[in-house]
Amino acid sequence: MNRVAVVGIGHSKFGRRTDVSIGELAFESIKQAVDDAGVDRKDIANVVIGNMGGWSAESLPAVVVDEYAGLDGVGTMRVEAACASGSAALKSAYNSVLSGEGDLAMAVGVEKMSEVDTPTTVELIGRAGSYAWEFENYGMTFPAYYALYAVAHMNKFGTTEEDMARVAVKAHHYGAMNPLAQFQKEITLEKALGSQVVAWPLKLYDACPLTDGSAAVVLASEEVAKRLTDTPIWIRGIGCSSDSANLSRRGSYVGLDAAVRAARRAYSMAKVGPEDIDVATAHDCFTIAELMAYEDLGFCKKGEGAKMIREGQTEIGGRIPVNLDGGLKAKGHPVGATGVSMTVEITKQLRGEAGKRQAPIRKGVGLVHNIGGTGHYAYITVLARD
Amino acid sequence: MSAEPSLHSRRTLTLRFDLPISKTREFWDSLRSGKFVTTKCAKCGTVSFPPQSDCPKCMGSEFGWVDLGRDATLVTCTQVRIMPPSFAGSGPYLIAIGEFSGGAKVLAWLEGVKREEAMPGMKLRVEARASREGNPFYVFVRA
Q1: Chain A residues within 8 A of B49 when measuring between CB atoms
Q2: What is the mean pLDDT of residues B14-40?
Q3: Is B1 on the interface with A (CB under 8 A)?
Q4: What is the largest distance, in Å, between two alpha-carbon atoms of chain B?
């Protein structure tokens, strides 16, 4: 099988970016990625835009972004897999290269969430499930979806609010070292535990913020990748899966079945296991989500996610460092950009370009865990130096 | 609104959806008479909740209605403190997922219970309600 590599990466500053339009925001990452890859835009066959939208003015973000960046006449579309739209864009760009459509493709993730007020965004994200059966009469919110999992996990495994707060403390610790992060400030366990409850038992500091941001990666076929760079980062496996729109139809509430299935597929395609992963990003839209991710990815046994964070096993120096970019919690979560941002981070880590927050790379394998909605979509990507 | 200069758009958009219920009408009609029913595939016997006229298991489109009864057990729950703006005035509300004896699970508000009292394993009963506009819906209460 032909191989596909990441050969160029770009990443905007994340945060409340009221200074830029969606086109301007995406351009920041596209320019960096194209320059980093050292390619001519005209040679890129396909540009896939990961974007959820609804909260931003432009209805056709793909063509708005392409026009602004001078990607004239390129094959393009916007793809949606909620908070995993970025990974869906990556998968589509990967398939484009693999199919032989062209030797180069680009995945761009971009989200502009501050164009409407915060309550409107709360409303729109709350509808991301089954509108007819679980929103119309019951007013679900995004924290509420994950709170249902948190309560079940706490009840079954004895996970505590303090365990969840530790995830936020870790995220802010590494976010403080990432100049592109929305929050670059350490927080204490007390501050996290004392924050306002948004959907019991989840508090403000258990939740990622609303973020504007973009990220981009240029992908190349094996032959072109080897010509372009000495440090191609190969996409060794992509696994994806999904689960019911209605939360009521889930088999259990202590883990995301879609993530377990996606992980199995990604590991199998990449011919690696959890023991081979040097560094990972996990989709910590809420702190409980990161603890469940450790379990769903097989980094620990079911129910032992809290033990991993308590023992520091997911920090630098621990068994598998996770979210050294600050995670969604501190780096920010521009919904459609997140999966691409995670791919940029793992590429940096595997290239050895992560500076102060560099993980030790032993086997040369990293993993991206990107979830859409509340395990409605799951995309897991395995990247490697060879 | 924003620290940076921006053009505050003059155009607004209100969305109000009409949700089709022709194929699940029996569910809503039964609810009005106090019964909680759902669909059962005539071919393979799969019980679905939410009710659906086409079987997700065998794709058969012949089905009947079964009474789920009123008793359920709390599987998990939360209390929403920051509400969507379209629920402003509904106050903090508890949401529970309850499991019926046949295995069907349902998400609904849990009324008349304090947050501290809501625990997995708690016995629930489903009850019909009507919205201010007269639309039927259902909630859980303590059994």
Answers
A1: 248-249
A2: 95
A3: yes
A4: 62
